[in-house]
Amino acid sequence: MQEKGTISIHSENIFPIIKKFLYSDHEVFLRELVSNAVDATQKIKSLSALGEYKGDLGNTNIEIKINKKKKTLHVIDRGIGMTAEEIKKYINQIAFSGATEFVEKYKEKGEGAGIIGHFGLGFYSAFMVADKVEIKSLSREEGANPAHWICDGSTEFEINEGEKKERGSEVILHINKDSEEFLEEARVREILNKYCKFLPVPIVFGEKEETIKEGEGDDAKEKTIKKPDVINNPEPLWTKSPADLKDEDYKEFYKELYPFSEEPLFWIHLNVDYPFNLTGILYFPKIKNELEIQKNKIQLYSRQVFITDEVKDVVPEFLMLLHGVIDSPDIPLNVSRSYLQADSNVKKINNHITKKVADKLSDLFKKDRKGFEEKWDSIGLFIKYGMMSDDKFYDKAQKFCLLKSINEDKYFTIDEYKEQVKTNQTDKDDNVNIIYATNPDKQDAFITSAEKKGYDVVLLDSPIDSHFINMLEQKLEKTSMKRVDADIVDKLIDKDEKAELVLSDEEKEKLKGIFESAADNQSMNVTIEALSPDELPVTITLPEFMRRMKDMAQTGGGGMPFMGTMPDQFNMTVNGNHSVASKILKETDENKQKAMAKQAYDLALLSQNMLNGKDLTSFISRSVDMMK
Fold first, then answer.
1. Which residue in 410, 478, 424, 411 sits closest to 454, CA to CA?
2. Which of 107, 229, 301, 603 is most buried by its number of CB atoms within 10 A?
3. What is the arrangement of strands in the sheet containing 72-77, beginning at the earlier edge strand?
4. Are 342 and 349 in contact (CB under 8 A)?
5. What b/e readout covers 412-428, taking b as 16+ CB neighbours within 10 angstroms?
6. Distance CA 39, CA 117 (A)
């Protein structure tokens, strides 16, 4: 048996679902109603511009009012208005969008681009907070009669001839008992500031006091007056042409967005109309050496209506540290305009933002290298993170990613630095070795040893540098990264050079046994090496591979999380050519011999910040005794 038919959707069944589940957050009802008022206002402006409306536009501000006594909230516009027939068409038919119809009708004439509405559902959000909703409207059509529509939240309505005298519409919400928070001025103002702060039509809510001067000169007197409080900025900076703006304009707008933040380093003005529409301003904030990814700093708008601050799909992950706004009507939103939906445009916008950021940074580097270097401590984190996250960004950024030399206190690009050190820091396998420090104060002894050897040391101390170092080794040809305290200086760069040990094999084994006994530590691998007599008598290091894996495990990633829980295995290198080694071997008293070895061992621990508790107390006491 075969049968075809039409699926029935009954309004009495679907209407309660729309009211209750369409929006996850009830406060958005005000965003939806104000957006509708904005659309009505934009429509009348468009018709006036086309000459299809001959009347005087007059005051086109949108007004929000609260009547706590009557428990009503009013949204009033002076826009296009509706006849009784239009109310039946656009309000009584769920999901029929008058905004979409208007855009389709006038798009060939270049009007309607600023219209917000799309799905024809926003009005019904009013019933989430209201027991009853009224619409009082007067159409812009000449000779039209005012209309008055009333609905108590059921599928039944009544519509009568109204009494409205001015063009436009007034939506009146009779707030229900559970939603009386929306009768509080502070709450309403909070919602308007969140969602409507940059809508393109002035929105008035209440009054504000303003001091003016009357008269001139000495006779001038100050007077306080009340005037309508326009709570929004209808022409935010991102809607303007970059050519018309100065640096101060961008800084002032940043203060408007983030009143308590430090001045930004610089910014990028996005202004694209093909193959998608995208405007916005992204600011680079000052970040000290901390990975503070605050994912609520970039705000997403659609035609100046705030949508969300969850922009992880639109903005690349590594740029979530940026601040600012993005506005695009081409980003697909769900039916309640509360969050994004997957779409090819989102990926295109993501790629475009990445490219724009890379181009901006490259331009800054080329035009003002000194200024770029001064900003490096704040922007280095962005750049390194981006290089690890995005191969296309890496290709551009590796040309302006900087390494800071501790020795010379200068900045080099990666290629410049490799050229700078290749003569003295190339190993037997023809790899250029980049030696780095993570804490110059604690690693000073190792840095000093490296400098004596003619090696240069760069500073890599950000929270993500353990991952950044691994990436560089994978990306750069014939390049090796070594932390300055990863080994004794003679072994940091293997040049296949061997120094002569002054000790005999018997003395070497005896000295090893003395230090193993003094250390009494199974995690300490003791070796006797032929080093310069000027080097430290004992050096303790954590092998580069193990330390790097443990660092990465602590900061996340690396593929070996178990490394974070494994016990440390250290190398104790005893300088067999140091006078301390000879002195220990010549001492005939075993207790004194062990005490001397213990003292040298503790000094090595102290240099690595590994001596504490009772061991530190004993070291201090022993040092005092030796001075007596």
1. 424
2. 301
3. 157-161, 147-151, 130-138, 168-175, 72-77, 62-67, 203-214, 221-230
4. no
5. bbbeebbebbeeebbbe
6. 7
Report the amino acid identity of residue 346. Answer: V
Domain assignment of residue 388, yes or no = no
d(CA 344, CA 272): 16
| 97 marked ligand binding residue | yes
Is 369 annotated as contributing to ligand binding?
A: no
Count up the domains in the chain and report the number: 4
Residues 434, 518 within the same domain: no
What is the rounded CA–CA span in Å between residue 373 and residue 379?
9
**What element of type H or E holds 321?**
none
User: Does residue 220 belong to any structural domain of this protein?
Assistant: no
Say yes or no: 355 and 408 in one domain: no
Same domain, 198 and 327: no
Q: How far apart are the first and last CA of the chain?
A: 110
487 carries a ligand binding annotation: no
Please enumerate in sequence order all residues whose Cβ is within 8 A of that of 255, keeping only pairs 6 or more positions apart, or say none: 261
User: Cα 590 vs. chain centroid, distance in angstroms?
Assistant: 62
Judge whether 70 lies within some domain.
yes
Question: Is 32 within any annotated ligand binding site?
Answer: yes
Percent of the chain having pLDDT more than 90? 38
The confidence band for 559, taking pLDDT boundaries of 50, 70 and 90, is: very low
Amino acid 49 reads A
Tell me the residue type at 575: N
Residues 356, 420, single domain; the answer is: no
Same domain, 524 and 478: no
CB atoms within 10 A of CB 120: 19
Strand arrangement, sheet containing 323-327: 266-272, 278-284, 323-327, 298-302, 305-308
Could you give the count of Cα atoms lying within 13 Å of 381 in the half-sphere of its Cβ? 21
Answer with the one of 354, 371, 388 that is the final residue of a domain: 371
* One domain for residues 313 and 339: yes
Range of the domain at 159: 12-206
The verdict on whether residue 563 carries a ligand-binding annotation is no
Q: Does 253 fall in a domain?
A: yes
**CATH of residue 127:** 3.30.565.10
206, 225, 259 - which closes a domain = 206
Place of tokens 């601050």: 309
Does 559 appear as a known binding residue?
A: no
195, β-bridge pairs:
none
Tens of pLDDT, residues 6-38: 544 445 545 555 555 555 678 888 988 998 899
DSSP β-ladder status, 298-302 and 305-308 = antiparallel
| Residues 396-438: tens digit of each pLDDT | 999 999 999 998 889 999 999 999 999 999 999 999 999 999 9
Q: Which helix (H) or strand (E) holds 476?
A: none
> Which CATH number belongs to the domain containing residue 557 in this structure?
1.20.120.790
DSSP state of 288: -
82 among annotated binding-site residues: yes
